[in-house]
């Protein structure tokens, strides 16, 4: 058993060995409940644990992602925008250029 401290915003740090034994990763969800006079933390799988691979998206999407990454690397990006109106104005300008 490990002794941990409750922070001012009710936060508790899960000790590394407990974190590892539960198979947790940053961003995972856990269920917290009370049993008698104890807090119980259980791992919660919100989404099925399917491996994420390029194969799931298909060859056309893979090619599109490669092109997009290349364009970003070349600096072919727009923005940042301060409002939705600025984004809309930019998109309207692109429409006019295509005509």
Topology:
Elements: H1 16-21, E1 29-35, E2 38-44, H2 58-73, H3 84-98
Antiparallel strand pairs: 1-2
Task: Please describe what this structure looks like.
- The structure is a single chain.
- The chain has 3 helices and 2 strands.
- Strands 1-2 form a two-stranded antiparallel ribbon.
- A hairpin with a 2-residue loop joins β1 and β2.
- About 0% of the residues are buried.
- The mean pLDDT is about 85.
Brief synopsis:
With about 100 residues, the chain is of the alpha+beta class.
Q: Using DSSP, what is the number of strands? A: 2
Unreliable spans are none
- Tell me the number of helical segments per DSSP (H or I, 4 or more residues long): 3
How confident overall, as mean pLDDT? 84
The value of Rg in angstroms is 23 Å
Shape label: elongated
Describe the structure using short key phrases.
99 residues, 3 helices, 2 strands
């Amino acid at each position: 058993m490990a002794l941990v401290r409750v922070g001012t915003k009710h936060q508790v740090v899960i000790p590394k060995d407990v974190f590892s034994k539960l198979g947790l990763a940053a961003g995972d969800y856990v269920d917290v409940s009370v049993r008698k006079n104890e807090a119980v933390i259980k791992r919660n799988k919100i989404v099925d644990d399917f491996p994420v691979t390029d194969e799931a998206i298909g060859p056309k999407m893979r090619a599109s992602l490669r092109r997009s990454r290349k364009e970003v690397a070349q600096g072919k990006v727009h923005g940042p925008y301060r409002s939705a109106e600025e984004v809309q104005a930019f998109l309207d300008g692109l429409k006019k250029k295509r005509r």
